[in-house]
Amino acid sequence: MISFFEICLEISGAVCVFLLSQLYVIKMCVYTECPVVKLWASAFGGEMKSISAKYSGSQLLQKKYKELEKSVRVEEIDGMKVVKNLSKKMEEMFRKKKEAIRRLVEAAEEAHLQHEENPELQYEYFNAVLINEVDEEGNNVELGGEFVLEPNEHFNNLSVNLSLSVVQVPTNMYNKDPAIVNGVYWSEALNKVFVDNFEKDPSLIWQYFGSAKGFFRQYPGVKWHPDEHGVIAFDCRNRKWYIQAATSPKDVVILVDVSGSMKGLRLTIARQTVSSILDTLGDDDFFNIIAYNQEIHYVEPCLNGTLVRADRNNKAHFREHLDKLFAKGIGLLGDALTEAFTILNDFNQTGHGSVCSQAIMLVTDGATQMYDDVFAKFNWPDRKVRIFPYLIGRESAFADNMKWMACANKGYFSQISTLADVQENVMRYLHVMSRPKVIDHEHDTVWTEAYMDSTGSIIKGPSLMTTVAMPVFSTKNETVSGILLGVVGTDIPLQELMKIIPKHLLGIHGYAFAITNNGYILTHPDLRPLYQKGQKRRKPNYSSVDLSEVEWEDKDDFLRNAMVNRKTGTFSMEVKKTVDKGVRREEENDSYSYCISKTVDCHGKFFFRGNVSVEAGLHDLEQPDVALADEWTYCNTDEYNEHRSLSQIQAIKLYLTGRKPLIKCDRELIQEVLFDAVVTAPLEAYWTGLALNKSENSDKGVEIAYLGTRTGLSRTNLFVVQEDLSNQDFLTAEDKEGVFNADHFPLWYKRAAEQVPGTFVYSIPFGGNENKSVVLASTAIQLLDDRKSPIVASVGIQMNLNFFQRKFWTASRQCAALDGKCTISCDNEDIKCYLIDNNGFILVTEDYSQTGEFFGEVEAAVMTKLLLIGSFKRINLYDYQALCREYAGSSDSGHCLSHVSSTPKLFTSLTSKSCVFLTMLVPCDTEYPAFVSERTIKETTGNIDCEGCVRSFVIQQIPSSNLFMVVVDNKCDCSSTLPVSMDPIEIMYILVKLKFQKDRKRPESCHPFHPEENAMECGGAAGLSAPLTGALLSLLATLFTR
């Protein structure tokens, strides 16, 4: 048997030291290299570079660009200028949408002004659910009727009607309620405006009017489908765009009675009432919930005496605590009111809240007195805090007292007897809160955070949106009462914002992003709103991801706060990003220019401009092997209907050759893409020649050659027929990371740019199916020899994994013996040979099942030593949009509980022989490691003490690549060493997040109250007893004279 380090003795006769132990005689090398391993590495590296360079055509392309070096000019990109230009384009887009909804507001208010309410009105309208439905006899159902629907590409090929809108009514409301019928009747006037808006701005998608009565008018008309229970839960009044447009920002304290009389159904109704109130709060609002009996109980004890932002995370956290409420004791409402007023006053003085409207929501089954002493002390005479009492249950013994509280404090009283009453009664407070805005007649425009369109079956597939919305008011004489008619709005797909980003100017690693006034992401390439790509299931907190949770290297929130406060400027910071399903790490010093922000990497600071004739450029651009980035905008084909069917290449041709082309294009980008088309054209003939040469690639190991340029142009060539490709998805729409996208360059392009010029980066794609047994090899093409030269292109090949591995094993059988008989090779049982990349992932090993695995999980002892001696380094990264598996019960009896770990694990199923555990994915925050090799270390040896047995290894870099050969002594058992895992670890700090209030920019408009409000419209003043009515009128008279 030949020991591992006799390899070294055979080649060099190196001096070795022999150490004796009770169990083993161990030979250890005391020098720094093993020539035979170096020989294997050199042989393999040389052959792979030869194959990669030959079939990719990298040297030919580098030569073509070098020939034009003197005829092009290199420019440094002004990041601030790019950001300002991008901001102007976005502002122009938003201005057009705002003008469209302004026309809808004017039309709606005029139509309502001309309409006389008629409680007997009968009107047949197109109900979104009932259109084209027939009864058993084949006749159209009532409120249905024949409604022409045709597929339309602009609306994701949904069948729509571009002439008419449809009306959706929530399932819990009556389709023919007089209030709804009257509202539907006068709002028919919006149909003409919908159509006119779409003709003026063909980039518009959905336009709509959400009525305060609950119905929703949508254009273009489309059929809605109920869920499996026959229900459509959508209520426009619960949508953030509606709430934000209808009311001003507010601070709210919710008081919940948990005294003994609230037991049973009353407490259930109370919980649902509080939950519905939370539904009406948005990201500009702040709140807390207090339960009271003879004591004050903060629902979240760690948040006593303060308010938190009403984002989705915080509301979900408080909802979990509602289920823990139980009723006992007596209710001391006076103490609870005092606490609520104190919180609102103190928090308002900090300047952290809305600094606008304030309200106390009282959820109780009665009040034994009016508590006028509390109101006199804290709220009168200004009455800046509105009181909204919700009487739970059918009894009315204390109704007068609660009505009086509402009327005396500019609020509204509601009685909720059943769970079915909750929704409508809760919504009424919004009309009261909107009164000042109505009386001021301020049509404030609001923009929502990013959200996933969820209006039933309207959108096929997930689509992130933002909405611009504006309130609609009554202009009739009763306006002093403050009548909100509803809200109009239109959606803007965030993909449209991404299209106007000049990706070619941002660099390979550069990207743009925008945030809301609250610091939440509107658009960012790292925003992950779905549980899994390709699914429609949204994460519950996807719309409130703070910028600091993605740009987490910005530890002091410098960038975030500057953007929130609308500052402009530039700064740099070290950033660490992951690519390739999050397992590979990028590290660079990025320059940030903010306003709407972009990052520019080192390569992105420089851009070069070339020039060719239009004729030559178009000729080479129209070749069949050429494609342009699908999500980049070379020409705007959405503005006019006649251009929507054009490809980007067809649009460019029309723009350059048309006599009077209406199409708008980026002339600068087109000039550069024509230049790239001409420079890269020789590769088509080169690749074709290789493919036709039968003596080349006889074993079909090389399958595809490809290239991409800085302008989003790509070329591909197949060396095997399509059906024989090992990876059918590569360079297709399914391969999101492998193609030019709206927010990133292809992964193979980015990774090539990180390497030393002239070297190839090799990798196995992650996340693929079993049939994706391929290795990708790519290299960057630089214009100049300077390290900071612009990366003008990247070329590469796709190889069959078996072909690649055969080359490795062949190289590892070589030696320097003159007779050609090698006593040492990777075939020996005494050693194990691995080929790993610069992130520690295995490309070649004897055990094929370990291909693609992390080296630290296969050879834990060796990886630990490599980290210790600095050959690799570990970098901790954070994911604040991660998913964890959480135990959710068992399909068997309770004894299964003992098998469940209390710590949620990621991406693992929980099973045992006796039962199957039910788990669910839940959002969480995680810390996880990434590993990267130290570039300056080319080779090293090491020894590992494995319980008295010394195991030795050699690691040698493969020349001109990102790969390393690792040869390990196989005679020691080091299995006791804990694996070096890449598994994430969950980070728990929910309460820190809840309490910590980050900087935000308050909405500029605030309408907390108005002196002309009619405070007597408070939900039940007409029903007050005579003494209480007199007391109220006396009080109001006193307050108004002060």
Automatic annotation (TrEMBL):
Keywords carried by this UniProt record: Calcium, Calcium channel, Calcium transport, Coiled coil, Disulfide bond, Glycoprotein, Ion channel, Ion transport, Membrane, Metal-binding, Signal, Transmembrane, Transmembrane helix, Transport, Voltage-gated channel
Q: Which residues cross the membrane?
A: none
Q: Name one GO molecular function term.
A: metal ion binding
Q: Which CDD domains match?
A: vWA_VGCC_like
Keyword Chaperone attributed: no
Domain (VWFA): give its ranges: 251-433
Return any one Pfam family short name: VWA_N
- Which ranges form a coiled coil? 83-118
How is this protein situated with respect to the membrane?
A: Single-pass type I membrane protein
Got a GO cellular component term for this one?
voltage-gated calcium channel complex
Signal in keyword set: yes
Localization annotation? Membrane
InterPro entries listed in its UniProt record: Ca_channel_alpha-2/delta, VDCC_a2/dsu, VWA_N, VWF_A, vWFA_dom_sf
Which family, according to UniProt? Belongs to the calcium channel subunit alpha-2/delta family.
Name it: Calcium channel, voltage dependent, alpha2/delta subunit 3
Q: Which organism is it from?
A: Oncorhynchus mykiss
Query: What is this organism's lineage?
Result: Eukaryota, Metazoa, Chordata, Craniata, Vertebrata
